[in-house]
Write a structure and sequence with these properties.
Layout: H1 8-24, H2 27-36, H3 41-50, H4 71-82, H5 86-106, H6 109-121, E1 126-129, E2 145-149, E3 152-163, E4 170-176, E5 186-192, E6 198-203, E7 214-225, H7 237-273, E8 275-276, E9 279-280, H8 285-313, H9 319-343, H10 354-362, H11 372-383
Parallel strand pairs: 1-4
Antiparallel strand pairs: 2-3, 3-7, 4-5, 6-7, 8-9
Helix pairs in contact: 1-3, 1-4, 4-5, 4-7, 5-6, 5-7, 7-8, 7-9, 7-10, 8-9, 9-10, 9-11
Bound molecules: flavin-adenine dinucleotide.
Length: 387
């Protein structure tokens, strides 16, 4: 089914992304990223130069001004994931969907001026640190504190599972600035690489996304100046997170749809080229029916996710609708990839095949950005009228 959200400008941009990937996301590069456990800085700078990251940065700060219009970012995710580079897509997503939006929506004029131009070019890479060893779903259980002192805050604590946490130059960090766990007890601060007492801990050894770093962070008496309090407002951190989480969840839904479509395309190609019992695997009725199911799921998925993108563009995507998209799309993605692996036989389990890598990458889509149980909780609370 043809998608209807793109026009010729989008398709011209798709060509730019494809050209970039042909040049910078070669097999050798991908193997290097997987070995190093991170995307090299030169690639991120080249992406900034090509306009592949920085899309959500306003034009006045050197970006494309596409924070609300997700279509260009969807094209980046579609092409990057379908080229077999899930890790690269992840690194792109962190910058434009998780780090930049806090500054665009909530940053003070000085914070925007200081950070956004260099985030558009990839000179400054960001991350978002909410999760701690003892608190993930229950974010109000965090223990990292920011105590007010003259001219700033002293931050103590630790974060874990932070995407791009090793490579980030600046981390939007969720901290406790008040007592108890009321929403106004939390704030967001920018913690910069090189601040005394801030350590990027070890890179975590993950099941998937091998070329994209996920790290622990620790803070020991880190002095963070007042000017790094996001929006200059103490006690607003919880609300600021709630405002941006629908975008994070939409972006995971888009990545899931892109990977689901890739699973279908890779499986179609593979089963047409692989023979068994004297005929292509694609000619067995079971395979053909599975391919029909996959093609239909991909159509329905994009129809739904595209609609969510357009609602977001019009500032109408509610937290509940974003939660639905996140859990539904990531579960369809998983089914598509798992079926795709099955139809590849043993080769589907080999990491040299993109379907195998995408399958390992996809597992975390049901966990991060809020687990799918938490997504169902958000949706169902609204249904039964509970806060
Ligand atoms: C690869 C990776 C990258 C990540 N990147 C980031 C990042 O960049 N920044 C960041 O801040 N975090 C990041 N995370 C953390 C991620 O968001 C959390 O792991 C996730 O929110 C779950 O928290 P948890 O691991 O503490 O699990 P827990 O909260 O301990 O959950 C354990 C289980 O209990 C269930 N559960 C919990 N509460 C409820 C409830 N109320 N109702 C029903 N079930 C419930 C959960 O669904 C889950 O199944 C990342 C995680 C991974 C694995």
């Amino acid at each position: 089914m043809e998608r209807e959200i793109y026009d010729e400008d989008h398709e011209a941009f798709r060509d730019v992304v494809k050209e970039f990937l042909k040049r910078y996301a070669t097999n050798d590069k991908r193997e290097q990223w997987d070995r190093d456990g991170e995307i090299d800085r030169e690639t991120m700078l080249a992406a900034g130069e090509a306009g592949i990251i920085g899309l959500s940065v306003p034009e006045e700060f050197g970006g494309a001004g596409m924070l609300q219009d997700y279509r260009f970012r969807s094209i980046v995710l579609e092409e990057t994931i379908q080229s077999g580079n899930g890790s690269l897509a992840g690194a792109f997503g962190i910058q434009d969907d998780l780090a930049v939006p806090y500054l665009v929506h909530m940053g003070t004029p000085e914070q925007k001026q200081k950070w956004l131009p260099r985030m558009a070019t990839g000179e400054i890479l960001g991350a978002l640190a909410m999760t701690e060893p003892g608190a993930g779903s229950d974010l109000r259980g965090i223990k990292t504190t920011a105590k007010k002192v003259d001219g700033g805050y002293i931050v103590n604590g630790a974060k874990t599972f932070i995407s791009s946490g090793k490579t980030a130059d600046v981390v939007v960090t969720f901290v406790k600035t008040g007592e108890g766990n009321r929403p106004d007890a939390f704030s967001l601060v920018l913690i910069e690489d090189g601040m005394e007492g801030f350590e990027h801990g070890k890179k975590l050894n993950k099941v998937g996304f091998h070329g994209w770093d996920t790290a622990e962070l620790s803070f020991t008496d880190v002095f963070v100046p007042d000017e790094n309090l996001i929006g200059g407002a103490e006690g607003k951190g919880f609300i600021q997170l709630m405002m941006n989480l629908p975008l994070e969840r939409l972006s995971i839904g888009v990545a899931a749809a892109a990977a689901g479509e890739a699973a279908f395309k890779w499986t179609l190609d593979y089963t047409l080229s692989r023979d068994a019992f004297g005929q292509p695997v694609a000619d067995f009725q079971n395979t053909r029916f599975s391919l029909a199911d996959m093609a239909t799921t991909v159509d329905v998925m994009w129809t739904y996710v595209d609609r969510a993108m357009m609602l977001y563009k019009d500032r109408k995507l509610s937290a509940e609708e974003a939660a639905k998209v996140k859990f539904w799309a990531t579960e369809r993605e998983w089914e598509l990839l798992d079926l795709g692996v099955q139809l590849h036989g043993g080769y589907g389990y080999m990491l040299e095949y993109p379907i195998a890598r995408a399958w390992t990458d996809a597992r975390v889509h049901r966990i991060y950005g809020g687990t799918n149980e938490i997504m169902r909780d958000i949706v169902s609370r609204q249904l039964v009228g509970r806060k």
